[in-house]
Amino acid sequence: MKKKITYIMFSAFAILSMASCNKWLTPEPLFKEPENIHGEDYYAALREYKSSEHVKCFGWYSSWTAVGNDMKNYLIGLPDSMDIVSHWLPVESYAQPLSDAQKKDLKAVQEKGTKVLFCLFFKDLGFRMTPGLENAENSNPSETYKQLMRETWGWYERRYDGSETADAAIAKYARALKDYVIENGYDGIDFDYEVNYGERGNLVESTAALHVLLTELSKYMGPKSGSGLILAVDGEPQTLAAESGPLLDYYIIQAYYCSGDSNLDSRFSGLFNKFRSVEDEATILKKLFWTEDFERIQDGRQDFTYRDGTQTPYSIEGMSRYYRDIDGQQVKIGGFGAYRFDIIGSIDEYALMRRMIQGVNPANN
Asked: How many CB atoms lie within 10 A of CB 252?
């Protein structure tokens, strides 16, 4: 991406020199600089870039209010060349509509070609879509909770039972999620799937129930729908049923505190072994995003060792340059990103994200 496109809202800085001998790590520039960078040419070039085949930049964004003077509170203040942002809001209450200010901000950033996803956990049937529900009762639901679920969705048991009534209730929930996404102007859904890290509920604990949910959603978003809306799963997508894989646009792996390519290779093997019966290796790799944790790594630094033994002080850089040799070709990763990239206090984290983007998708100056 061109420097002016990548940095127009921020001051320029020196590009990090890359230390690795992998062939593709000096990629070709993608586009020429548009003549009128302040007008429609600029936005058209951004959209062209983001619709091209390139290594995408992703992040979970937690600061969105669209009010006040701090640009960290606005989507429009994000680095222009970020491809996909997942709206991270760790609450369990009923999902209220976006404010008018948020909707205006959302439309403005979408003019740049940036996709913004509604993020929520896989938990219980009706999670965040049940009016009157303040908190999900995932482990030991009360009778009042059960009754509310049954009245709203037509079925509720602590364990998914595979019945037609249960499947109809899950499909109804999927349609409510779809309606919320469309009515609020989001570009799709990012499900956080962490069943092996403590999440409980009659959906998250059953891959069969999740497949019912994803199958219904796949009519409206994801690669099967033709709608352009994104359907993604982060966290542990390799734990899903194999048949759920082709319904998804992206597998977003939380490869937190990653030490090097050897660690990523091991993680990839788990993903590949799950979905190899339904997707080939190159397809799985191009749908895959590695992500780092910027909530705990608050200076963005985590040493990373490449396959050739060279190192970078930024694991996210190593993730962005991940590839695999497939049928004699070096096939690149689909994308890279970070959890809560908007909260690092000791450095300019937006500058770091821009530098990673520029490293794998360089400008034509």
From this structure: 30
Q: Read off the DSSP letter of residue 211.
A: H
Residue 170 DSSP SS3: helix
Q: What's the pTM?
A: 0.89
Predicted confidence (pLDDT) per residue in 37-95, tens digit = 556 788 999 999 999 999 999 999 998 999 999 888 999 999 999 999 999 998 899 99
Average pLDDT (91-112) is 96
Residue located via tokens 């403590």: 198
CA distance 53 to 148: 46
Distances (CA, A) of 93 to 72, 127, 152: 24, 8, 15
> Helix, strand, coil % (nearest 5) of the chain?
35, 15, 50
What SS3 class is residue 17?
coil
Query: Which has the closest alpha carbon to 181: 114, 115, 112, 249?
Result: 115
Task: Print burial letters for 56-85: b (CB count within 10 Å at least 16), e (below 16).
Answer: bbbbbbbbbebeeeeebbbbbbbbbbbbbb
Question: φ and ψ at 239, to 5 degrees?
Answer: -90, -10
